[in-house]
Known about the structure:
The complex is a heterodimer. Chain A folds into two domains: 4-184 and 261-301 and 338-462, Alkaline Phosphatase, subunit A (3-Layer(aba) Sandwich), CATH 3.40.720; 194-259, no CATH class. Helices cover 34% and strands 14% of the residues of chain A. Chain A contains 14 helices and 14 strands. Chain A has an eight-stranded mixed β-sheet with strand order 2-14-3-13-12-1-7-4, with helices on both faces. A two-stranded antiparallel sheet of chain A has the order 5-6. A two-stranded antiparallel ribbon of chain A has the order 8-9. In chain A, strand 8 and strand 9 (315-321) form a beta hairpin. Helix content of chain B is 48%, strand content 5%. In chain B, helix 9 (249-284) crosses helix 16 (419-439) and helix 17 (446-461) runs parallel beside helix 19 (486-498).
Amino acid sequence: MRTRRDFLKTTALGAGALSLTPCFNLFGAEAPGSGFPKRFVFIRKSNGERPLELALPTFSAQDKALDEKKQPLEVALDRHELPVYLRGLEKHKANMCILQGLSCMMSENGHFSYSSVMGAYKSNRDSLSGIKRATIDFELAKLYPSPFGHIELSLTGNYSTHRTGIVSGYSAPGPHQRNYCYADPMTAYNELFRSVTNPSVVQSDNAMFKFLEREETFKASVLLGYEKQKLSNHILSIEAIQARNLKLSKMAGSIAKHLPKIDKVHENGGLTATAPQKQEAMTEILIAALITGLTNVVTYTIDELSTPMRGLPGNEGDNVNIHGIGHNGSFSGVPADKIRENIRILHMQQVARIVERLKAEPEGNGTMFDNTMIMYFPEGGETHHGSGSEAPFVILAGDNCNLDLAGRYIRLPYHATEGHKTIGNWYTTLLNAHGNPIKHYGDFDLVMARLKLDQSGAIKQFMA
Amino acid sequence: MKHILVAVAMFFAASAHAVCDEGKPATTPAAPFRVGERILPLLQNYCVSCHGNQTAEGEVRLDNLECLKLDARLDLLNRAHEQIFIGEMPPKNEKQPTEAERNLLTDWVSSELRAHNASKLEDKLRKPEYGNVVNHEKLFSGQYKDLPGFTPDRRWLISEYIFDATFNHLLGIKKTRDIDGKRMPIIGGSLRPFMRINITNPFLLPTHSGVRYYDTTTLDGGHFLTMVNNAREFSAFLMSLSKSHNSLPAYNKIMATEWAHEKLVANRQSYLKSNIEPLLRELYQDKHEALLPVYVASKPVPVKTTDAEGKPLKREEFDGAVPSRDDLDEIYSAMRRHSPNGEKQDEALVTTCEREWFISGVNELNIRLRVAFMRNWMDELLKRRPKAPAPYVPKPPVDSELAIIRTAILKHRKAGDTYAAIINKCTASWVEEFKQERLKEPPLTDAMLADIVDLLFTKILEHSPTAQEKADDSALMKSYIQQLGNEQAFSKLIQTFILRSDFVYRSEFGAGQTDEHGRKMLSPRDASYSIAYALTDSSPDKQLVEAANSGRLNTREDYRREVLRLLKPTDQLYFIDESLDHGYVDSFTDMPIRKLRFFREFFGYPALLPIFKDNKRFGGNYDNGTNRRLVVEADLLVEHILKEDRNVFEQLLSTEKFYVYHSGDNTAMAAATQSIRKVYDYFKDKDWKNFDVEKLTAHLPFLKENPIPGLNLHVLENGKADMNQVKIFKSMMTDYTERLGNGTTVTAPYSSVFGVPGTAKTRAGNQLGSGEVAKAFNLDMGSWNYPTVQPAKMEHRKGLLTHPAWLIAFAANTETDPVRRGKWVREKLLAGTVPDVPVTVDAVIPQDHTKTLRQRLENKTQAEYCWKCHERMNPLGNSFEMYDDFGRYRTEESLEHPDNLIKKIPDKGTPKQDLRDIYKTLPVDAKGKLDGTGDPKLDGEITDAIDLAGRLAKSGKVRQSIIRHAFRYFMGRNEVLSDSKTLIDADQAYLESGGSFDAVIVSLLTSDSFIYRKSTTTTK
């Protein structure tokens, strides 16, 4: 593992430099080492994730009691049945980890957490000034650069219609910065695969960059010293984006080969597409972006409380209101709990789709999935109005995963007790395991701090 | 850092005779490295004793440097250069060279580095953290007063604030704020409500305290990538805006034909949507029905009302289950058509509506949602059905248009087509016809292209293009049109403008005659921007533009006139921090924003906002607005002192008066407190504890004149009040009695009753909240005798450094931070320097719950290696230990650890209660030492932070240090010796004006350093 000093050296001046270059360093260099890049998929869900819904139905009485009392626990998944909603992933059990016991009280919680749950800070609701640091997905994207660096997808809305186009995202490239995201599958398709689907726009972009490069070079030619350096940096930036576009053009063959098929129902924002249709199409985009190498990190907000859930199996005629079911409202006679489960089943179908497609793509001596980690987690803790005392994660990790956790149901010590781990510890683990030796990522939990309980650093038991 | 300089000296001394290790001959450098005869003795006198062959401190071997590669040698020289220049070497306890000797050494090392274009010190000296490196005494000695001041010609990257103001201006955003009941224009902020545009600000300033905005930042790849996205968003938005508001006339001109075509098509569509059925019946007569698509009614599914255990299911509410507002409107509309008087209320109505939607071509999903909703909520739909709006009847098209519509229908309708399908096919054919028609039009003329270029230059870059620029951009536009067509080409041209360096950099170049010192005055246009951006975030106002255009921005007096004008109060408001300006607090000012922002950033108290604090340790509700209130009330204090403009620095450092839970409006706050007093005095001797509705209602005339928050007078008046109103009344009276029944004469206008507001408003008219801010000032909210006139004297406070906002900003989550506090005082007020924490140092204070933080810190930093830096910080920072990490005064430090818990206090209570757990304590030691003022009357032992603040306020060096920071703030760079006169003049202006900060600003913005520029271009 690299030391902190090594890291500071290789990231050119460390934190200061990083904070000023939130995006661009994501797509410059090749991945560290000679191997294949690691890939990360963060899937954010709304409405909380109730810990008991992840409990294994075949727990022994002793394990069941430990789980219900929030006591530390670890069992192998291969000896157990999965909860109903996870059964779509039955054949991937060996790659699965159900991780219970993490807390996220230092993030926003409640109905919405915005970027805070992936940055481990209070975000002052959705304010820019509340964004304290680059979120974990962006930090990982820095470690595994790619042409797009980081891609964010979201399926959100205003309770009756979906958001469309390119809109504000939930991830943060740096302090006080909010990412953008693709809010509907067709927009994502048009933007991400433009080098194949709309080459004339790419050509005009290139013409613009060429013109700018010539113009700035001319201006710089008469300057001296530091003033020349200022314009030189401007020119370098233009050149870098041209280089990226060139790289994308060279990838056109691969992109064309893996271009997802997006149904016409998604045209013009896909206002008449059902939620399952939108999820499937967005998942197709996600898979193609990973397989083509456009990115190694995707954050996918699969729903939030205001996402209109139309066409949900079991409630095909309803515009299911996720906030409503959070308050236990039934739709067309289907109880809220059942609808919640159906929504999660739908989510798991998307996870299974990603796993299976990546397992079908050869990479080295294995498949692309071997180098991939998928994390499915609630944006707001343990319930609809979560306090963040628990934040269950469902993780799918390939065989080359740098962490040792697959194939297990793991419950860590409960919040505010000795040995408890927060999402800050979890994200630190991800970073440490992939080359960023940061001592601790994220804010500390104040209750843990008040009790003087150690809460710094990676979760050592996961470090392979 | 070890004695690098001495190590260098060893190398210098040995270089002439160096023999490399292992007997290899020395590598002959490209340019032989020789130490001059005047340098050698200096090195031997001051350096070699520590960095000799056997004592190479710092683990630097220099005896074989001749054998190193050039890069390694230059690296070492660079390190030595910095150490000599900033005076870190030789160490203070060693023999020191004279100033002339030090200069000689510095110049020599510098010349060696320059010979290889490898000097890093110059770059470093531009950075804010090196601002204090230039010797303070030299700057103010007068010895360098005759050096002509200037700033190099430069581009200066726009700040996050200029970025926001620029885009707000370009997007035509004019924000207003209702203050004291009057609508006022307000500038600033990044919020763009109701605008569907996703602009990201890439030019964020660093978050450290002090001066944040320097000319040294250059645009990098991250900025540029964000700007590429911004450019696309902005161009699309601007063009859509122009379509409705003609804000880009040249664009509207080239789009006129296309938009006319769009309008024609839209009219045809509109007519068809309203009239298609009668039109089809007329065209197809009795064949119409046969051509319709075949409708099959859906079947209702029984809905369960109980769960598996037979318990009733909670049904989602009507509003939560609505498919969408549009769908609901369509449902109502169809119900009106098919059951105007409610004659159909059952499945028959649903089926009729479903059939109509199906034939019309409503998509399957929407039909399904509407039908299911009708079946589930028919009872509510009938109850809620609104009155029918007046039917919209589109103007019938002229005959020729009608003929076109009829022809299109006859041409495109096929059996089984829905109405929507027919309309879509007709529309597509018209769109294509018009497109072909436009293709036959001649291309844009050169004049039109030139108009477009002129327009964008004026709008985006705020100046006219040169002939060359016009020609280049016209050619570019032409090439875009060939690739993309008119509309997209225009968009691309806008993007090109946004991505130019001219857009993201401010331009500050000299023009005109060069004076005897090789300087030129700023060009009038650049001067207008420099003055505007010095005081605001916006481009020059009309008067400045006029002054620049009419030759009235060419002299120092011209500058003075404009600066004085801009400093005068106006009706223009500025957001101080828009993200704070909501709910319980306001955050605005009516003074030029950059004047207030200087002190805000200099002191750095807004840094408290991202510090995550524990409510339990606060003993109340800290993160529900208390943090925001602390910042805005610190802002209010700074604004108050700046408005008085007398002894500003001394006041900021030593005022004993503060704002605590105050809007800034003394009259309004007095009225708000009096309203409580009146209610209390009126009812206190009455039997209010036994009031019922009737007895309470009997006092309605009094209550109407003196309303109690939360009490609904309307229901009392209507005789509809229930005991709930009595309960609210009694809660309020209980609260008032607790606060005023103990001898307190005036209580603060907050509310202690959950869910009931206080009696005071912010100046923007919102509820004033977060009364628990008082706890940060050690005020007992139950007995606080509230001063309505503020700022008011607070116990144990002296100046902003004792304001809880500053103390929290310079504290950790759960502990104080004497090191950072001491560092701040050393660097910001005493013009001193503190080296960075070496990467090898683990700068963490060990935990030990039997000791105070000061004791633990002392244990950690007493080693000589640590102390040589910490002695510059700890003796200053320790004095603030009289306050805890929430800024509360204390004499005992609470040893917060479970092992030390004496009493657990409940986690919830009223704002008046202190909910902190009680732990064992140890006495606070806030003694310290002040050194570095250069004044023997002030330097010496200090008793605590109050003592420190009082001494700092009296120090001339502190005053000058603030002026140095003001220089950096307004010039965007570090001061150098040639700025000596500028600094001395500003200091004098302050003294002669009785401590006016306005006088400092005027002095700086009319100084040579601001006005004059030196060229940074080549001669070619």
